[in-house]
Amino acid sequence: MKLKLMTMAVAAILSAGTAYVSQAATADAFPAPHSDRNTWYADGEAAVKKNAAVKRIPGKAKNVILFIGDGMGVSTVTAARILAGQQPGIIDASNTTAGSSGEENYLSFELFPHLALSKTYSVNQQTSDSAPTMTAMVTGVKTLDGVISLDQDVTRADCATDIKTHRITTILEIAEKAGKSTGVVSTARITHATPAANFAHVPERNWESDANQPTGCGVPDIARQLIEFKYGDGLEVALGGGREYFRPNTLEDTEDAGKFGRRKDGRDLTAEWTTKFGANSAYVWNKAQFDAINPSTATHVLGLFERSHMEYEADRLADTAGEPSLAELTDKSIRILNKNQKGFYLHVEAGRIDHGHHAGNAYRALTDTIAMADAIKKTVATLTELGELDNTLIVVSADHSHTFTIAGYPQTRQ
Q1: Contact 302, 235 (CB under 8 A)
Q2: CA nearest to 194, candidates 67, 366, 306, 87
Q3: Total domain count, the chain
Q4: For residues 200 and 221, what is the distance between their CA atoms, to the nearest angstrom?
Q5: Mind telling me the catalytic residues?
Q6: Strands 344-350 and 237-241
Q7: Which one of 3, 59, 215, 295 is separated from 367 by 20 to 30 angstroms, measured CA to CA?
Q8: Does residue 125 sit in the same domain as residue 202?
Q9: Tens of pLDDT, residues 331-381
Q10: Are 86 and 7 members of one domain?
Q11: Is 71 left (phi over 0), alpha (psi -120 to 50) or beta?
């Protein structure tokens, strides 16, 4: 009997992450708990039953969705979970009204059945940037800092790099070759390192347009590689920021008067997108245009909602032209891609978590983390509605952590 009790107690601790175990497991080993502690026993027992009920889905996934919180380390997740749970009207996983401590809350992806930790480093740096970390995630190969989807045998920012020799195949390219639909979504520039690693191969992450390259550089810039993508029928969805990297420096911006594109080659890649993909394709740059997209008929959609990065979630509603939320971008992307009976691959990045941390702005970093959790919750609901949840592998991760610390408790004199 003692062995049985110990086994159930250990299972509860490992599954629930709490030092309390179910009443059933400890009824004859411990005195009855105080009434205010009953919820902890019940929560522990519920966690054990939930984990025991998880069933393996046989076969291969038809669809893959990769969510990346850029710069979202363990401390960021912890703080975002607490902040979300402290918001009035939020109902946490214990089905109690939040707005108090927030400690018992869960972000949507924390309720997924499997959890692991990973270590991040690049070939030449212990603390790596987004280029080699995302390259590793979408190719399985580590490389140098600042290098996107090329192997480690290159020199960073070398215009003489032979792309064909050093390129590494990405999961997005594999999906396109297999006849699947593909897409990238980011609140950062769509040419930024994390989304770019899916479709571009460059020895310098900053080569987002030709204006960022040395004159006469022989390597195509990242924006150009998106438009000129040669596998399958091209990306079906590309939604994010970075409009000025696709438009010529002679063309005034559609949202910000007096501002112009960056490109020196005279090309308007937004126009080339619709020319390439035809009548059922679209280029949009504001929320009204985005909302008007019909996912049942749209084949290829390019959305660039800012000249540079999209707004932080905390500032999004004040944007001049309006910006869709990450949840809205993800939902519509899934509905566009899901028309392909062979399946799809979609990468979604909450890119501005990283920027908030770089700026020392915890509130914006954490609210962007919560926005990603909302997008993941919406994804599960959409896939359920479409009957595709069991056919889809959803992976949530970060490309690296950040210098965000939750301090320890203060000591007091006894």
Answers
A1: no
A2: 67
A3: 2
A4: 8
A5: 130
A6: unpaired
A7: 295
A8: yes
A9: 999 999 999 999 999 999 999 999 999 999 999 999 999 999 999 999 999
A10: no
A11: left
Q: Does 143 lie in the same domain as 212? A: yes
Range of the domain at 44: 2-52
Q: Is there a contact between 361 and 71 (Cβ–Cβ < 8 Å)?
A: no
**Is the domain of 265 the same as that of 226?**
yes
Instruction: Assess if residue 247 is contained within a domain.
Output: yes
Residue with tokens 């064909």: 164
- Tell me the residue type at 214: P
**Residue 333 neighbours by CB under 8 Å, 6+ apart:** 183, 185, 237, 239, 346, 348
- For residue 307, the domain's CATH number is 3.40.720.10
